[in-house]
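Appendix B, Record 12. Input sequence as logged:
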Amino acid sequence: MRVLVVEDEQLLADAVATGLRREAMAVDVVYDGAAALERIGVNDYDVVVLDRDLPLVHGDDVCRKIVELGLPTRVLMLTASGDVSDRVEGLEIGADDYLPKPFAFSELIARVRALGRRTSVPLPPVLERAGIKLDPNRREVFRDGREIQLAPKEFAVLEVLMRSEGAVVSAEQLLEKAWDENTDPFTNVVRVTVMTLRRKLGEPPVIVTVPGSGYRI
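Logged structural output:
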């Protein structure tokens, strides 16, 4: 899952990003609304964690732009105000969910994951395919009942492949979904991560390489 965190309090923004990355999400961070619009125009995000009171461009206008563009991106709006009227207004603008500050980080994680599941084809909370069971909320992976310990990027790559439901996923798509924008697009990190993931998942191999196209399960 790829997430954009938009928050002008830099310490909070960086802390949220660090926590989401520990949950095997690819996270980009910006500190104002203008930068958010720029990123949204370049990258595809599953979820935007959007502070409402932003400098340069207000969070409401960022949310409206996402809706106007018809993007499938889900918006979790943050605000220091917990008034019901503010929550209603935020939802009417086009936000998918609303979380007042201060918030429990565990709740933020749960809400981001819930929004990430709201795809055009609804997916179950626990993904199962080819004897593999992946639970994004618990960060657990089992193959034929055996638990497998994965590093965050390995987990993220496996989740992207599982969510594709057998479709081929290119290396570029994996790079976009599992790594942030600071990753060198010419690196071999995708190939190395897939190799390590195959080894950890064991025999027989379940990740198939489609020459010239990418990978699938």
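The longest strand covers residues 74-79.
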